[in-house]
Amino acid sequence: VQLQASGGGLVQAGGSLRVSCVASGLTFSNYAMAWFRQASGKEREFVAAISWAGANIDYTDSVKGRFTISRDNARNEVYLEMNSLKPEDTAVYYCTADRDYFILKSGRFSPQYRGQGTQVTVSS
Question: What is the pLDDT of residues 27-44, one digit of tens each?
């Protein structure tokens, strides 16, 4: 199983960025997906999760109203659209997958699968 994240980069505060993750080696539509992030010197943090069909979506409070998670099961991709970015959003963003949505939603970083991260840097 591979989860390949991309789309990170450098953006100014207030700007927007979309990170993507393409999954292979699993039946994508059977898995809930989530994004976590880890800033330098800090613990890994839950950002957003989406159930296999998109019926359930959750966000951490700090990104509600600014970030949108979505998925395209035909493309085996999950996305995180990030708007109104703040310097405190700077982190490595990780894509994760688990059959159990509630494991991802719990915020405990114990997914069945995790990908390499993509760096998002927001300058002030």
Answer: 999 999 999 999 999 999
Distance (Å) of CA 23 to CA 51, 62, 81, 116: 15, 27, 18, 12
- In contact, 90 and 121? CB cutoff 8 Å: yes
Token pair in block for residue 103: 């494991």
Among residues 121, 96, 122, 93, the alpha carbon closest in space to that of 110 is found at 96
> Does residue 101 have a pLDDT over 90?
yes
User: Burial, 64: exposed, middle or buried (Cβ in 10 Å; 0-12, 13-18, 19+)?
Assistant: exposed
Q: Which two tokens stand for residue 72?
A: 């395209």
Task: For 6-20, give one letter per residue: b (16+ CB within 10 A) or e.
Answer: ebbeebeeeeebebb
Residue range 51-75, pLDDT digits in tens: 999 999 999 999 999 999 999 999 9
Return the pLDDT at 96. 97
Name the one residue in this structure whose structure tokens are 């997914």. Answer: 111
